Amino acid sequence: MPLVAQAQGVAASAPMPSQPDMTPASASKADSKAQRQALKAQREAQRKAERKQARQVRNAELQNLQRNGYGPQAAPDQYPENLLNAERKSAPQKAAPAVPASSN
Fold first, then answer.
1. So where are the chain's domains?
2. Please, is 35 exposed, middle or buried when counting C-beta atoms within 10 Å of its C-beta (0-12, 13-18, 19+)?
3. Where in this protein does the record put region Disordered (predicted)?
4. Fewer CB atoms inside 10 A, N or C side of the chain?
């Protein structure tokens, strides 16, 4: 008897369960799916918070530049100078080194 026929005979003679019990496997699948969805929601919330923070920083910088003279209403030929001047004005001034008090 060829091996293929023997394998088919063995498989055919093996009793097949009428309905396999899928409850533990389906429960673990549902748990893992719920975990994946929770992780995905967490990552999306984190990205949203990062974008919001970056947008707030960018808007604060733009407002600071606008308070110091930069504006889109300026003439296009003055753009680089206006922006550079506003950046210089908005940059925090470096603190001058303190002069030590003379001891008399």
1. 29-89
2. exposed
3. 1-104
4. C
